[in-house]
Design brief:
- The structure is a single chain.
- By secondary structure, the chain is mostly beta strands.
- It has no helices and nine strands.
- Strands 1, 2, 3, 4, 5, 6, 7, 8 and 9 form a nine-stranded antiparallel beta sheet that branches.
- Strand 2 and strand 3 (15-17) form a beta hairpin.
- The protein is globular.
Length: 106
């Protein structure tokens, strides 16, 4: 189940944050990617099962801060784990302008 918290503008192809917001989604996979963009750089904080991703940070996430900067319209690798498992991802958006398109998993 996908949960959006905060205020969002829901469009046919994406949801755009209108201020500080968050996305929560339960998934089963070892890698999680997020297709997103923003008109200006926007920082997100990525949590897995309520904790910073740390050693499970994907290539686009700083493992020390559990943050990523979204701007270009592209696929962002948020989580990488050698073993597949069931987890919950939470993306905390620090401001308005994030366009969230979709998640992909492997």
């Amino acid at each position: 189940t996908l949960y959006l918290q905060g205020t969002w503008d829901i469009e046919p192809q994406y949801a755009q944050s209108l201020g500080a917001a968050s996305i929560e989604y339960a998934y089963s996979a070892h890698d999680l990617e997020f297709v997103a963009s923003a008109p200006t750089p926007i920082t997100i904080r990525v949590l897995r099962d309520g904790e910073p991703v740390g050693s499970f940070a994907g290539k686009d996430v700083d493992p020390k801060t559990s943050t990523a900067v979204i701007q270009a319209d592209r696929l962002y690798n948020l989580v990488h784990d050698a073993d597949a498992g069931s987890h919950t991802i939470q993306i905390k958006v620090e401001g308005a302008g994030l366009k969230a398109y979709t998640f992909t998993f492997s």
